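Why Sigma-54-dependent Fis family transcriptional regulator? Reviewers of the renewal asked for a concrete example.
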Amino acid sequence: MSGATLNDNNSMYSSYFITRAMNKILIVDASAPDGRIMAGLLTRAGYDPVVTDCIEAGKVEAAKLPPGAVIVAAMRLSDGTAKEFINWLKTEGYKFPVIAIVDNLNTDAVDVMRGGGAVDVVQRLAIDKQLIETVEKYAKPEHVVLTLGNQLLPRKSEVWQKIEEKITAIAATNANAIIFGECGSGKEQVAHQIYLNSSREQKPITIVDAGGAALVGRHNPENERSEIYNRIEGYFQKSAGGTIIIKNVHLLTFEKQSVLLHILETEHPDVRVICTAEPELLKMVTEKTFRPNLFFILRQSDIAVPALKDTTEDIPEIADFFLKRYSAKTGKQRKHLDASAIKALKLYPWPGNVRELKDIVLFAAFHAKGDIISEADINFNLSEPRADDDLSLRNPQREREKILEAYRRGGSWSEAAKLLGITEKTLFNLRNKYGIERNGENQP
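Here is what the prediction returned.
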């Protein structure tokens, strides 16, 4: 079996659950909002981020970094470039790996990786999808606690049972497929299960990230085709008779879309293509920023993976799965969630979905003093903006929708009032205003 990732191996496609000695991560980025987002993501994943906005401040913090640290630096800064910062690090004898944040993969990435000394790149538009996965490759962990491959997590919800049935049905065909879902919802595991249950399982699989450096290339003047064309075609040749999984297909540039479309339409490779995508892909097709003809070739079948907040009944079982593996790998006594912890987990909106649940549960297991994990041991990261998950009643046009959402999540009107940040009396009046019965149904 073969696999193509940023480093041409399969490690990118596995999820690593790591107990870290709080690895320091130095962020050097002039964008304050992106700096906050990166710091939030890293904190939730168990790292200790330090944020600076220029090279000079970065130099001061770099001198304080302990072994095992990683530096994340923007390609362009107010007082220089990432290349200049990396050159300073080399001059001072620091060998911390530097991950560059780039705006343009086709030019910036090639420049900073080929001549600038960065070990890897992350596209700015894909920070939430690529940052943690990339940092994990270079941070030096204290020890690995739990490794999870491409298996599906145990889930009992009716929605998930239907997804497993659809996986089996699609796997029995040779149809291309797109797996839709929010970041961290488990799209990649679903895509891999289609491959594992198909007749192509005995043939090679190649995994590429549409927004990653694996598709970076420059035009080769000695070749009639661009390096991007040669590279994508090479993936198909490598996977003959097998499967290509394209992660985050919505991040493909228009040029790469055109190359992929041309290969599929003219060369008809004997390769099944399974893509993962966030729901925004559908809007991109409507707005013609993603080629409709390519979309329909790729979406011969599809699966919509639900957000964790829509299948909260699965949370106890998934969390228990993580805790079992934690105990098995560490040799520590098995830990359990009490009722208060389960309730807290069910009420949380989960913008990071299952991936975030994994991080939070393992963090709680590591830090809980006893064998019982309570609500007090659960550490939620609330630093990220969550406009769509905010249940406060600030938009009158969406009040009714938010009220019903809060009731569904909370399971009772008292819990719904807490989520909405209002009193139960106010909520009662709003229910009367919008004609909402006690059971959440419309009044006749």
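The chain has a mean pLDDT of 83. This is the kind of structural detail the renewal will allow us to pursue systematically.
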